């Protein structure tokens, strides 16, 4: 119990300091009196007895200090004294305090803002049951797209993967919702019956799917989330009898799940139904559209599950060579797959803001050194009064930590605003995560603030506590006389700032060049004045191909009649959306290839006017026309890349192609230019177009070239579709230019932030260099006055001052170039069309930073040239 008594004494000493001091004085007087009485009994006079007692007792102040350590306060009391003194020093130097707080607020605020995103996206577990063991199971082949599974393959994996404790399959797709005032498109998902069991999700009302409800002949049932339940079902307490018309068919609502559940990779899903209701559902092994997911069994690693999945895929390929030849499997942790695209971007940004904080620390260390030079007489006086070097260092670190905490608090306010700005500028770049200032972020900010205070305070505190006591106390000695150590320290800090700033500037410049190169990519079409929207026909209403084509044809006809429309067409998968599919094709001229290794091409479906409407150039042959019908032989149009790869140095027109899977055989009738499909940055892939009139299908994307501002025709285009069928929903009404902007949003996001951070680093560094040179000029006023009195010209003084600052700048640029050459290789995957060691970028940034440094040195140097020698010498 001794430690409790000790803690109580210390706390009491802080809270009741005056009483403790009185008690110590009374106790000391008592001991002195008792000692004096003993001396009197030994024959001394009362006066001598008191003097002898005081001599034997020793220094009362030293005894009090020792007693304070026991009875209360101690080190904690000393710390409070240091804090009070630090606050007084901040109030005494408001200009220095304001500069320090704002500099730290910028550094800590930027770090906190980015960390809050990193924490929400990379560090927190996904909000699912046992999310650390949740995996996604895919097929794997040479296709660049997602390796989806067929329902039959999903059943095989569910039955054979013993390393998983559960397995479900899902695919998201928008569904038509009718029966209201206007047809509506809502985000839906088609799942196996145990889908919600995998997520251990309990309904807030009703139930989820029962086993067997995803089988053939089962009733049509649906589960909705709370938002949909409130908005469309008026929060009905009784679900029995509630019906939804989805894709033209009635579904019974059996349950409601919480809004807090966000389906992986598609947080907008509001309605779930069973997998066999998926449009185009088929029991064919190669009818693939599902993603598998489940939990690893406790103790099982991803590598073990991957090995078993490989074995199962190999068994499938051997048992079903026609459908599964060359197919593998891939098991990925869901957490890893969810963040793998954004992780390098966030890590690059986090490294950038870390550099900014280091630059801020170096800057403030220089300012603290300069300020401390004027306080050397104060430190010398405190040292003469008994303060040790450790005591002085602790005082200075307390002051810098107070500044850092104040700057961190201000930075926290900036970070809150910064997070909102990050999410507002590019909300779709970041995964759907709850980015907020929580306990982890607050702890990070506190830790960053304290660490910053120590970082920028330690070196100045160590340097400033080293001085010649006699020289500093000498009457008339110049307060602030400093040695070579302080000069070297300031020089090192400037070099560090310059090097870090150059690294950030090089990174920002590389991202600018990369983004510019991306914008210069020819997408293969003309995006100006293009309006687009999508729709999907309900299968029960448009089951026959002839009915589907008739709807599509009438829609195009109605669109062409809209005033302001120049041309209109349909395409199944619009470029840069990734909606079209892919398939393997038989090699031309009877050549054969091993199963699973046939050429793979992107397949799209278009109406005759599509290429002219999009501005995709026609190369040779012919395009689709009215003679291409359901009852005529299939015809294809291919892009130049496909023509070049499959028929090098030959004419592709007239060649036969067989699409494997559905065994469609057709003739190539024309060649068109290449158009990007998924990303502007992708390598061009072979593309094959078939004709809408021969392969109509349920899904279509409308493309309209307008004579006016595209979005001004949005409502008219919607109504054109509704004239054909008033119950047909349409969605994703947008311009193609907006689609292109979304396609490069992640690159723009990274580029903008890196430019902002690089600019902030440049500003802090320039101010720091200016401050050091300006301080040096002030310290050397006497020397400059002597030089000018001896005949030095203004140009000589200017050269002297500028050369001193530029030597540091050049050293920093040199170190920064070496660091950039090494570090930029880590961002190579984030760049497009530019080398991470681009010589022109390095040279340009070095010249820019050198120019800014020259300006920062020139301004105080000009002031030095105006020094009056008489005034300078008289002052000294």
N- and C-termini, Cα separation = 64 Å
Give the overall average pLDDT.
83
Q: Strand-residue fraction?
A: 5-15%
Q: Which range best describes the helical content: under 10%, 10-25%, 25-40%, 40-55%, 55-70% or over 70%? A: 40-55%
Q: Low-confidence runs (pLDDT<50, min 5 residues)?
A: 475-481
Radius of gyration: 38 Å
- DSSP helix count? 28
Structural class of the secondary elements? alpha+beta
Shape: elongated
Taking the sheet with the most strands, its summary is: 7 strands, mixed
* Topology, number of strands: 21
List the helices and strands and how they pair.
Blueprint: H1 2-15, H2 17-41, H3 46-57, H4 60-71, H5 74-92, H6 94-123, E1 134-140, H7 151-160, E2 168-178, E3 184-191, H8 195-198, E4 205-206, E5 221-225, H9 226-233, E6 243-246, E7 249-257, E8 271-274, E9 291-295, H10 302-319, H11 321-324, E10 328-333, H12 334-339, H13 343-373, H14 376-384, H15 389-425, H16 439-464, H17 469-473, H18 484-519, E11 530-536, H19 545-560, E12 565-571, E13 581-584, E14 600-606, H20 610-614, E15 618-621, E16 634-639, H21 640-646, E17 656-659, E18 664-672, E19 687-691, E20 699-706, H22 714-724, E21 731-735, H23 736-743, H24 745-779, H25 781-789, H26 794-823, H27 839-864, H28 869-875
Parallel strand pairs: 3-8, 5-7, 14-19, 16-18
Antiparallel strand pairs: 1-9, 1-10, 2-3, 2-6, 2-9, 4-7, 5-8, 6-7, 11-20, 11-21, 12-20, 13-14, 15-18, 16-19, 17-18
Helix pairs in contact: 1-4, 2-3, 2-4, 5-15, 6-13, 6-15, 6-16, 13-16, 13-18, 13-24, 15-16, 18-24, 18-26, 18-27, 19-22, 24-26, 24-27, 25-28, 26-27
């Amino acid at each position: 119990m001794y430690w409790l008594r000790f803690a109580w004494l210390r706390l009491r000493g802080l809270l009741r300091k005056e009483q403790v001091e009185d008690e110590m004085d009374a106790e000391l007087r008592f001991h002195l009196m008792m000692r004096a009485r003993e001396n009197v009994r030994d024959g001394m006079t009362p006066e001598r007895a008191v003097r002898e007692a005081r001599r034997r007792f020793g220094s009362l102040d030293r005894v009090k200090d020792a007693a304070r350590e026991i009875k209360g306060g101690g080190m904690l009391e000393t710390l409070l004294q240091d804090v009070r003194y630090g606050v007084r020093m901040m109030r005494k130097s408001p200009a220095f305090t304001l500069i320090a707080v704002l500099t730290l607020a910028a550094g800590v605020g930027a770090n906190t803002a980015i960390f809050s995103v990193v924490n929400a996206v990379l560090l927190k577990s996904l909000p699912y049951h046992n999310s650390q063991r949740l995996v996604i199971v895919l097929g794997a082949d040479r296709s660049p797209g997602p390796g989806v599974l067929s329902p039959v393959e999903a059943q095989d994996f569910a039955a054979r993967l013993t390393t998983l404790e559960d397995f479900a399959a899902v695919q998201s797709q928008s569904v038509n919702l009718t029966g209201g005032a206007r047809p509506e498109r809502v985000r839906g998902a088609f799942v196996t019956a145990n889908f919600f069991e995998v997520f251990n999700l309990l309904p807030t009302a009703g139930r989820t799917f029962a086993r067997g409800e995803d089988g053939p002949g089962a009733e049509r049932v649906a589960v909705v989330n709370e938002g949909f339940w409130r908005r469309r079902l008026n929060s009905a307490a009784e679900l029995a009898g509630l019906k939804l018309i989805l894709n033209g068919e009635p579904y019974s609502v059996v349950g409601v799940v919480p809004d807090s559940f966000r389906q992986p990779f598609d947080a907008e899903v509001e309605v779930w139904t069973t997998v066999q209701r998926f449009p185009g559902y088929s029991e064919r092994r190669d009818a693939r559209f599902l993603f598998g997911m489940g939990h690893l069994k406790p103790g099982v690693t991803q590598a073990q599950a991957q090995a078993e999945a490989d074995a199962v895929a190999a068994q499938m390929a051997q048992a079903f060579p026609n459908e599964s030849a060359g197919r593998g499997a891939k098991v990925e942790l869901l957490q890893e797959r969810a963040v793998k695209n954004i992780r390098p971007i966030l890590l690059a940004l986090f490294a950038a803001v870390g550099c900014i904080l280091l630059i801020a620390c170096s800057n403030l260390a220089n300012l603290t050194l300069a300020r401390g030079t004027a306080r050397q007489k104060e430190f010398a006086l405190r040292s003469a009064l008994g303060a040790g070097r450790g005591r002085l260092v602790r005082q200075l670190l307390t002051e810098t930590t107070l500044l850092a905490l104040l700057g961190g608090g201000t930075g926290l306010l900036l970070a809150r605003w910064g997070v909102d700005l990050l999410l507002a500028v590019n909300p779709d770049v970041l995964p759907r995560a709850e980015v907020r200032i929580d306990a982890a972020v607050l702890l990070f900010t506190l830790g960053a603030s304290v660490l910053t205070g120590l970082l920028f305070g330690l070196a100045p505190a160590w340097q400033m506590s080293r001085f010649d006591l006699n020289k500093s106390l000498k009457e008339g000695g110049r307060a602030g006389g400093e040695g070579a150590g302080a000069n070297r320290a300031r020089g090192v800090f400037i070099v560090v700032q310059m090097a870090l700033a150059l690294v950030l500037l090089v990174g920002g410049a590389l991202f600018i060049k990369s983004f510019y190169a991306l914008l210069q990519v020819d997408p293969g079409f003309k995006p100006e004045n293009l309006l687009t929207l999508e729709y999907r026909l309900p299968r029960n209403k448009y089951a026959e191909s002839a009915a589907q084509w008739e709807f599509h044809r009438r829609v195009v006809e109605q669109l062409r009649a809209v005033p302001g429309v120049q041309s209109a067409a349909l395409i199944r998968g619009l470029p840069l959306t990734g909606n079209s599919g892919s398939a393997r094709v038989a090699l031309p001229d009877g050549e054969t290839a091993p199963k699973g290794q046939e050429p793979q091409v992107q397949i799209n479906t278009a109406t005759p006017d599509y290429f002219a409407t999009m501005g995709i150039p026609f190369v040779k042959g012919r395009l689709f026309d009215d003679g291409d019908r359901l009852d005529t032989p299939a015809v294809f149009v291919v892009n130049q890349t496909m023509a070049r790869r499959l028929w090098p140095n030959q004419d592709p027109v007239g060649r036969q192609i067989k699409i494997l899977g559905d065994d469609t055989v057709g003739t190539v009738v024309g060649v068109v230019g290449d158009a990007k499909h998924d990303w502007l940055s992708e390598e061009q892939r072979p593309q094959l177009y078939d004709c809408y009139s021969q392969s109509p299908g349920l899904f279509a994307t409308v493309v309209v070239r307008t004579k006016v501002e595209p979005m001004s025709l949005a409502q008219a285009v919607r109504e054109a579709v509704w004239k054909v069928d008033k119950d047909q929903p349409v969605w994703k009404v947008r311009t193609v230019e907006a689609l292109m902007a979304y396609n490069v949003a992640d690159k723009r996001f990274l580029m903008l932030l890196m430019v902002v951070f690089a600019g902030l680093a440049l500003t802090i560094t320039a101010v720091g260099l200016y401050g050091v040179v300006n301080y040096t000029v002030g310290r050397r006023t006497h020397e400059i006055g002597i030089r000018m009195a001896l005949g030095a010209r203004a140009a000589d003084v200017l050269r002297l001052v500028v050369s001193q600052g530029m030597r540091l700048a050049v050293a920093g640029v040199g170190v920064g170039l070496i660091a950039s050459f090494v570090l930029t290789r880590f961002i190579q995957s984030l760049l497009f069309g530019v080398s991470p060691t681009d010589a022109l970028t390095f040279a340009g940034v070095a010249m820019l930073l050198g120019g800014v440094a020259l300006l920062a040195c020139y301004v105080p140097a000009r002031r030095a040239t105006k020094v009056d020698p008489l005034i300078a010498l008289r002052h000294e």
